[in-house]
């Protein structure tokens, strides 16, 4: 009789998870996806094949997600099991709901940049500011789309624009208004999502940002330059170099325009933080 799981791998338990089942005499995979298609059929693609005769990595049942995510569902899965979809480390406190009664606290829902800002703008009260933010939002979406198209066509693109809206570091978190986190350094005080993220973004991480981007672009770091989050802090953005770029290494003037538009949206919707 044919084995339940076929004869490709000797599994310890039947019905084992495709990511984490233990196998003998075979390899295991650190990252995977099953939404690649060949001749209209889904196929399983693996990345980073490691050693034989071992169980899979002992951290979580999620793929190790320092790689770029393929879709929003991949990112949401990583988040649900406690992994930041950008850096692959444990989910950051500002990406979790401080009012959750669960242990660990429940993470926020993953959304795209377009969904995040559309939701913010839609919830603004009618008036001149909302009208202005609607225009800024449209310009922002179009400018990022143009930068991505330019990059795909072989142009320079913009270093402050993620490759796609669903790549791991591009993921935004849907954060309801009024969420506040305890200040870890000042008991009794509270911080916004952005404030807690900023507190984590110290000298060591800023230096790493400069070093990584200088190596990527060949451009030296400039003392005093700002380091800009592509997915903003108020949206739960990560402090990883794949989400933060020095201002002098973003690209051409169109890239600064994108940064300015995002800053305008952050300020114009600050009443919803």
Can you count the helices?
Answer: 6
Major β-sheet profile: 2 strands, antiparallel
Order of helices and strands: EEEEHEHHEEEHHEEH
Classification by helices and strands: alpha+beta
Q: Determine the fraction of residues in helical runs and give it as a percent range.
A: 25-40%
Radius of gyration: 21 Å
User: Distance between the terminal alpha carbons, to the nearest Å?
Assistant: 61 Å
Strand content: 15-25%
| Average of pLDDT | 84
How many β-strands, per DSSP? 10
**Domain tally:** 2
Q: What is the approximate shape?
A: globular
What order do the helices and strands come in, and which of them pair?
Blueprint: E1 10-11, E2 23-24, E3 27-38, E4 41-52, H1 72-80, E5 109-111, H2 113-122, H3 128-152, E6 172-174, E7 181-182, E8 190-191, H4 193-200, H5 203-217, E9 227-229, E10 244-246, H6 253-268
Antiparallel strand pairs: 1-2, 3-4, 5-6, 7-8, 9-10
Give a short synopsis of this structure.
This protein has 273 residues and is α+β, with helices and mostly antiparallel strands. Helix content is 30%, strand content 16%.
Describe the structure.
The chain has a two-stranded antiparallel sheet with strand order 1-2. The protein is built from six helices and ten strands. Mean pLDDT is 84; it is low at 1-30 and 47-69. Helix content is 30%, strand content 16%. Helix 3 packs antiparallel against helix 6. The protein folds into two domains: 1-58, no CATH class; 109-272, no CATH class. The protein has helices at residues 72-80, 113-122, 128-152, 193-200, 203-217, 253-268, and strands at residues 10-11, 23-24, 27-38, 41-52, 109-111, 172-174, 181-182, 190-191, 227-229, 244-246. With 273 residues, it is of the alpha+beta class.
């Amino acid at each position: 009789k044919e084995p339940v799981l076929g004869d490709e791998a000797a599994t310890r338990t039947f019905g084992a998870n495709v990511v984490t089942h233990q196998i003998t005499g075979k390899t295991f995979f650190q990252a995977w996806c099953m939404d690649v298609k060949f001749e209209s059929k889904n196929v399983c693609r693996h990345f980073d094949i490691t050693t034989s005769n071992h169980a899979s990595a002992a951290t979580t049942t999620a793929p190790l997600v320092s790689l770029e995510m393929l879709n929003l569902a991949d990112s949401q899965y990583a988040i649900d099991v406690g992994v930041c979809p950008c850096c692959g480390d444990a989910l950051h406190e500002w990406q979790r709901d401080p009012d959750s009664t669960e242990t660990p606290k429940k993470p926020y829902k993953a959304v795209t940049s377009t969904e995040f800002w559309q939701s913010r703008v839609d919830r603004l009260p009618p008036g001149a500011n909302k009208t202005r933010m609607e225009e800024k939002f449209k310009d922002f979406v179009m400018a990022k789309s143009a930068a991505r198209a330019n990059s795909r066509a072989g142009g320079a693109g913009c270093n402050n624009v993620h490759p796609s809206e669903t790549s791991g570091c591009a993921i935004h978190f849907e954060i309801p208004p009024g969420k506040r986190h305890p200040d870890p350094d000042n008991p009794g005080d509270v911080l916004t999502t952005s404030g807690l993220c900023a507190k984590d973004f110290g000298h060591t991480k800023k230096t790493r940002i400069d070093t990584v981007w200088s190596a990527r672009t060949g451009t030296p770091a400039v003392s005093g330059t700002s380091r800009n989050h592509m997915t903003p802090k108020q949206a739960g953005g990560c402090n990883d170099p794949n989400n933060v770029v020095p201002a002098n290494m973003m690209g051409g003037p169109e890239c600064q325009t994108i940064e300015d538009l995002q800053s305008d949206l952050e300020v114009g919707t600050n009443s919803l933080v």
